[in-house]
Design goal:
2 copies of one chain form a homodimer. Chain A has 9 helices and no strands. Chain A binds a DNA duplex (18 and 18 nucleotides) through helix 3.
DNA sequence: GTCTATACCAAGATAGAC
DNA sequence: GTCTATCTTGGTATAGAC
């Protein structure tokens, strides 16, 4: 848990969210994590790209689990995704509008430069979409419709981060969450009654 | 038009889209534009940040005009935004998935570092949202609803770029465009008949 | 308004002792 | 597994002739 490797990943995650991938130096990571550059290369022989992939993989899993926890705690299937939008907005304001997600930033910076990083980002976001899809199909929505809503949800959140941070106003995430929720409600309402597990 | 200043902005725009803001060096810009670093600092005394702001402002205007052209040419008010999603998907595939928009990337990289760049990005995206809002209010949608749909449209496009480039598959933009269009159709259908200008 | 040359510093990465 | 020291390259920015 508190291993050196974990400390390096955690520090990198925070720095990437603040300064981006290319905007963060290994010297900063070394200082913030308390590990020397020698240690960093010990755990990540491929250097910064290896480290970036580890950050993306770790964050991808954590956010998928976070979605499942929030959606599972929602009062009904329709509100699960909405609660995520609201939670993201709150996080942004509490953290002085630091990027909640290093993955989207890294993906945009290096999608045309590093294949390992691009693929790791795609895998992470696909795992979120899978989770939303599963959440909605459990409420009776058919698979294609559920997946399209999952893709829109992830896109709207990632794009919402750009808008919210630029404006220094997170309320757009709440409004977009409301819009996406309208579509989700329609899809759940259209589902065969026999497969619905809630309202 | 073909002035040195314009060549510097154009070259920077393309490089930022490929490698990001921090991932692009002034030496690269110098080589791609044919202008020396001395020339670059002559036109942009504030250095890279000044140049970035100019790129964001220029691109912001061009894309706003492009939206108005596409939406104006649509067969009906409901399809204007959809056509933009489809056009963005086509552009991505034609350009080997280079980022269509330097603004979103720059915003995520430096929103917590450079206030001038952050504000320029916010202004650019707000101008797009204003344009979508005007497009929808002209079809009879009330202002708040139109603006929320404009925000969702821009968020879904910007977030869609992240997903599409990571996957190297642009089809998600078409699907998200369909979802957003459902909401737009509902809003236009709900508009008072006296204010509607089309179907 | 454009050029060459360069100052100055930070980047990623590595070597090798411990 | 961790450390210090350093190599090499590239970064932004500037100086000053033309």
């Amino acid at each position: 848990m508190g291993s050196t490797r974990d400390k390096i990943i955690t520090a990198s995650n925070e720095l990437f969210r603040r300064y981006g991938y290319n905007g963060t130096s290994l010297a900063q990571i070394s200082e913030a994590s308390g590990a020397t550059t020698g240690s960093i290369y010990h755990f990540f022989p491929g250097g910064k790209v290896d480290l970036g992939v580890a950050v993306v993989n770790t964050t991808g899993s954590i956010y998928r689990e976070l979605f499942e926890a929030i959606a599972g705690a929602a009062e009904n299937p329709v509100n699960g995704v909405y609660d995520v939008f609201v939670g993201a907005a709150a996080t942004l304001e509490e953290t002085d509008f630091i990027d909640p997600c290093p993955i989207g930033t890294i993906a945009r910076e290096v999608a045309n430069v590093s294949d390992p990083l691009r693929r790791a980002a795609a895998d992470a976001m696909n795992s979120w979409i899978d989770a939303v899809t599963a959440h909605l199909t459990a409420a009776g929505v058919d698979d294609d419709a559920a997946r399209a809503l999952g893709e829109l949800s992830v896109s709207a959140i990632e794009g919402g981060f750009v808008l919210a941070r630029s404006r220094r106003d997170a309320s757009v995430l709440v409004r977009s969450g409301e819009q996406v929720t309208k579509l989700i409600r329609d899809a759940v309402d259209a589902a065969p009654l026999t497969q619905r597990s809630g309202t």
